[in-house]
Structures
1.
Amino acid sequence: MNGSVSPPEFGWRPGLRVGVGLGLAVFPVAVSFGALATTLGWPPLPTIVCSVIVFSAGAQLALLTTLTAGSGLFLALGAATLINLRFLPMGITVASSLEGPIWKRALGAQTILDGSWAAAYQGAGRYDRLTMFGASAVQWPAWILGTVVGVVAAPQTSLVESLGLDLVFPGFFLILLLDSFRSTPRGPWIAGIAILLTGGLVLVAPVGVAVLLSALSALVVLIGHGRRGSEPTDDLEPE
Amino acid sequence: MTTGEPLWWAIGALAVINFVIKAAGPALLGDRALPPKLVLVVHSLAPALLASLLMVQLLGQGWNAFDWKLLPGLAVIGLLWLLRRSQIVCIVSGVLVTIAIRALV
């Protein structure tokens, strides 16, 4: 659920228009999630409910990947949680744009998605909440519908490989990774260290442990940070 | 763990965690900011985790799932991303290359 589409104006309607483009992008990923989850043994109902109540490609794929690789509940949840921790600073950036009592702001924050958040950026640290709401309102049903289609049409493992569909998830992770380089200082260095760590750790440790330990590579961003003279939160503003 | 009650617990717990992460900033912090270094590290978790998950998808436990025929497709995806093609174009092109490689080798 990423993207860098910028609407010429802000509000519900421009947000919905952006959401259509983002929805078309997330639909095939959702189909792949539904299909792979079914192929790996997840029953249809939990797979679909997962898309309804979690609604996060990266976290859902992390949960699926680690659980089906044999990791325990806490390791799998840890990996999925770390993936979504980026929403914490993103939530802080939009805090002043969300109005009303605490429960209303908490609900509004559920529309924070990578693409919607980027589309809502007005510049100078300001975000338009209606644009974000509109963009996410289209992506949610697209994500659920795609998952249902994937579950219903789940192909056999051999067919998945012959159709090259086993490339979809690594490819999706690669695109999200490359996108993250645009907003993360030293992103390629962090990713390089994480790749080396994971490559070695999966030989000696469960997948979930390898993923969690590789997260330590994020600390590279702090090396020499004090000498850069910029506010870290400046790096969070979308392009 | 792929079926039954534990799977429901995993999904439910992830949904709650996801809700709390997104709601924490707007609901609790308001306009107050987290320590800048903490924000930077949290944001840097994305490339670290995504790179790790990419490797896990490619290698599997003990490198048992590694298939070099996926690499050309990934290279094409990376190249098209550099050319600023859309996500769907990148993925479909990578899949087509993978199909071709598997058909030829």
2.
Amino acid sequence: MTTAPLHRLSALAVRDAVARGEVRASDVAEDVLGRIHGLDSKVRAFLRLDEDGARASAKAVDAKVAAKKPLGRLAGVTVAVKDVLCTRGVETTCASKILRGFVPPYDAHVVERLRAEDAILVGKTNLDEFAMGSSTENSAFHVTANPWDLSRVPGGSSGGSAAAIAADFAHLALGTDTGGSIRQPAALCGMTGLKPTYGRVSRYGLIAFASSLDQIGPMTGDVRDAALLLSVIAGRDARDSTSQPAPVPDYLASIEDGVKGFRLGVPREYFPESIQPAVRDRVRDAIDVYERLGAEIVDVSLPHTDYGIAAYYIVATSEASSNLARYDGVQYGIRADGARSLVEMTSRTRTQGFGPEVTRRILLGTYCLSSGYYDAYYLKGLRIRTLLRRDFDSAFAKVDAILCPTSPIPAFKIGEKVSDPLSMYLCDVFSVTANLAGIPGISIPCGFTAERLPVGLQVLGKPLGEETILRVARAYERETDWHLQRPPLD
Amino acid sequence: MEWEAVIGCEVHCELSTKTKVFCPCEVRFGAEPNTLVCPVCLGMPGTLPVLNEQALVYAMRAAHALHCTVATHTKFDRKNYFYPDLPKGYQISQYDLPLSKVGWIDIGPPDRRKRIGITRVHLEEDTGKLLHEGADGESFLDMNRCGTPLIEIVSDPDLRTPDETFDYLKELRTTLLALGISDCNMEEGSLRCEPNVSIRPKGQAAFGTKTEIKNLNSFKNVRDALVYELERQRKLIESGGKVVQETLLWDAARGVTATMRSKESAHDYRYFPEPDLPPLNLSQQFIHDVLWSLPELPAVKRERYQRELGLPYYDSDVLVQEPEVARYFEETMNAGAPAKEASNWVMGEVLREAKDRKVEVGALPVTPARLAALIALVLGGTISVQAGREVFREMAATGGDPATIVEKKGLVQISDESALQSAVERAIAAHPQAAADVRAGKEKAMGAIVGAVMKETKGRANPKLASDLVRRTLGVS
């Protein structure tokens, strides 16, 4: 039996210890909740905890163990869930005032899957309002700090989930990634974050930002835990017509098989002048490790990369302008007082309920879809998507996976970019392309800057190539101990 | 100047599928408000639509029946606008790649038959309903209807008169009913029509400025509103004014149209492809399977009734209006009744009885087989036509067998000369003037004497035999 504190164990280790009867799920839950109580006042990763729910789940697991009943794959493992995923009976707000008080009568598909595998859901994590942002500063409720440097952002929009993992507030977390919202905060918090292929995980119960880009994925302490969590949440769901029917492999089965003989592509467009030197150097170092492990490093080109950000902000805002139309004060969430007409009720509710970034994106998207502008913007955005997909298709004809930075910069200071949305948008330059092309990508820690800020390495794969990128990521992780390092929070 | 109207119709028809178009809620009219709803049709955050295949098949049936080409590649789009009865803030509809395009339907009786072009038939979802019935002016929402599958049928601007439009709608309704995809009940809103109309000098090719009329809940309303609107446009133009492109509401009580919204305040619906539903690729096999599954359409049935059964157009048209009626007619015929006799009885007694009882003809206690038996009794001379009607009423009330009823009521026709002779003699004695008139060749006077015979025999006398006996007794041939 291990001597490390329970919150510090990997999910796989917790599950094994619980299954063997070495630790009780209730002790795991108390340890994690105790840690959150002790330290989350500094990090503020959570919007709300579900302590009663967590304790009840833990007790149920302990009862199963005692009765020698079969246990789920996440028995006794604590999970933090981004507050954009619906949880039955637990308020779900998307970090927006407009959804205050909204208690879904249903679980998201992924939440159902977690419960079915005996996970312990500890709470809902902070995010940029409606997942729009790259710093979690756009939360209507509070800012989350990066556990590595509390004066800095954790990235976003899944900043709460990334910070929760970095601070050992949960063994696993779920994030969502529309343009990098899993991978970028994972990079900035020194954690592992995987955005699956579009359609690999059902979006049922994920409150939509941009439906054709949104994907749910694991945010974990290491690659093997990411594989475990993906195995649980992936697969066809009849309630999401865009979910893919392909069978779900055991992502842990081939994860230790290494990269010997693999061809790994390095796209020249992902190493521009503007990238921070420390980031570039750490990623180059990681590429050297792969070469040492027997992979062949191949120079590839993704020529339309530069158009990614523009296409992304057209497609994402257009879809968002429609997806967020339902917050009109009629059925749920807040309703502004004192309106004397329908139009006034809706416009006042939305003006009061949405923050500035969400408002900005709704306006941008509404403009892009307007009569006379559709062809110039939305349609062009779709064409760029096709070109980006072709870029990746031709690259993947030559290589098994692609290596590149996750984010051009490490964690920045809280407040630094708030007044400059464009520079914030540019944080997504290396991550939006995977969403636009629908391909999977994983970010894993690959070292630190001189200021001891984590740097992320991104591994991109073919559609449904999750097994490959997990294997590639794990090969590097085995050679390094970045994933074992923890911020000096205590 | 002579003016010509140009009319096109947008028709929305609710499909009578078991469940809604994008969620598993039941489709049913008249349930308690908000009892047929779920998170999906309420548009709650995080929910997603899943296409009901039955709705797709029903829409394809309509497309085929209207001779449209069904697309092998089609998709759904979002139509964005704010309204409380539209919970997602957008309607899932179809924009640039509709399910089907370019078809036609023939309308009107043979002497003014006309082919009307169909622009497109597409599938979409219905909205909820706002109920303005609060005591303090509040409004309530009933979302039962929200998510009911709807087809939109757009006609070409081929209609030229309000009567033609009426014929078009009637033929469209009959066709949709025959397909079994909708109850087409205008009062309950399952069939809704929004015509657009303009006028132009006769002979001019260019269209005038059109207006669109909403709030029409019967075919008669449509005709009345068009008559009014055409007259309004004519007067306006002739007095030097200009028609403004706008949406009008028909006020049936006052018989006028009034502005609902002008072109300037028209919505920009910001259509874009629905990302939650992948585009549909329909195989030719699937498309053909739906085509071959179509029932005989009213237009074809009407032709057949005339050609093969020798029925007049009028009969064939009445019989095919509702599939139940046509079925009832054919079953009566199959049970042995001659076509024209069956048609007369169905159009007369059967439809009247169904209307009086407010039921479908199929729900009448009189089965087609029993109606055929009744017809046989009349044609065989066992009972008179008049007695036949009485028997029918009894059958409709009790569901009994005609022969039994005839027996029980003693309605068997008296066709025995000796049984009638004394009644004839008494009738002649009682009407000396009429008897004299008949002898003098006034055929009309026969009525009074034969009537008296019928009265005495309580209608059981064979009328032909009674007449013959009266003549013979009076010595006229």
